[in-house]
Amino acid sequence: MNTATINNVQEVNFDGLVGPTHNYSGLAVGNVASMSHGGLVSSPQEGALQGLLKMKSLMDAGYAQGVLPPQQRPDIGALRDLGFSGSNREVLACAAKEAPQLLRAVCSASSMWTANAGTITPSMDSPDTRVHFTPANLQSSFHRYLEPQTTGRVLQAIFRDERHFAHHPVLPATPAFSDEGAANHTRLCGEYGEPGVHLFVYGRQAFGDVRSGEREPKRYPARQTLEASQAVARQHGLTASQTVFAQQHPNAIDAGVFHNDVIAVGNGPVLLYHEMAFLDEEGTLDELRYKMATPLIPVRVPVEAVSMEDAVASYLFNSQLLSNPDGTMTLVVPGECQEREAVWRTIQDYLLAGNNPISEVMVKDVKQSMRNGGGPACLRLRVALSEAERAALTGRVLLTDALYDDLTAWVNRHYRDRLAPDDLADPQLAEESLVALDELTQLLKIGPVYPFQLG
Prior knowledge:
Elements lengths: L9 E7 L15 H5 L7 H17 L4 E4 L7 H6 L6 H11 L1 H7 L11 E4 L9 E5 L6 H4 L2 H11 L6 E3 L17 E4 L8 E6 L23 H10 L7 E5 L2 H5 L9 E4 L2 E5 L6 H11 L5 E5 L6 H7 L5 E4 L5 E6 L1 H4 L1 H11 L6 E7 L2 H4 L9 E6 L1 H5 L9 H14 L12 H18 L6 H4 L1
Parallel strand pairs: 1-2, 4-5, 7-8, 10-11, 13-14
Antiparallel strand pairs: 1-15, 3-4, 6-7, 9-10, 12-13
Helix pairs in contact: 2-16, 4-5, 16-17
């Protein structure tokens, strides 16, 4: 089993299934890939199968792999809340005519990027020795603000046993507590079962005196606030000795780095990052070194090797960094890394040949996700679980060959191979999605989690 363990603790990557309404609407301000591909024709079927194939290949390589379901889309209830009325067909038609931007938003399949689903603290770091969950409020964009309620129900359905799991309320959906989840959170440690230090990265501060030297981006909004990160840490019982709060470099945000996981990735004691990741690079590293029980292994990629443009276009730092039992690490990169000469050369000559634990690179095709601005790391939510905690999971959510086959067949039964923006008003698409999701909850054995199932 190629997953680093101690005291039977494993890191499980829970990937989000690409939903039936996966489309390119260009909704995410500051996400260069999303904005540049807006209006293109998508393939929900191809996207879902690409995601499943990535999960399967990692499972086959020995890494623990889980699955999370997509959201109910289109969210017709949200349109009704905004004043549209009549039958579902009439609501969709009226929205398409009067407010097509709202229709695109309520059809977004953005929940596939489960790195934004919430923030997780494993039991070995929490005072009550339970795994703690806080769904992200995602208030910075309307299409993602629609997700937290269903996300919370999904997490509570899977991580149901109160002896092992604790669930916290979503933070207030206001700009002051803007929370984008684990995309701005990294746990660094020795082995997974050992105590860790939690690196929270934020883009701006909402209250009080701005910290010395801090400044905000000028082109794109900073999505994560310091106050949100601090609140999640308090909810989970994390102490000052367990946390580091670092500001993301505003120039990186303005270059299209909307989350920290687009410019840095960490696992175990390794932090792979671009030199423009943090505003106070040395201060951040010094505090991590001081608080970590295991020596930090920073792997810094200078701008001379990989420009900000190449970093954003390739999503090199939105790769998955996976630990192996022999102490080495595997980097799972999107295919776009091979298309940028400077990036591929850096991987071969600097990362693989360098003095660091990264010894292998796996290339995965997740192009349907990448065109909307989500790479391999966006697609997964990491949860470190003990053997007892894994046994306490509800449902059929840990990937096996049989589950992979069932999910692949499910996608092929229910997903369209082509979806243009104009198709989002098709009431048949809404019906197809409900049928597919109802079958999926039965397949995963997680019970009712969607609004249409709850009445």
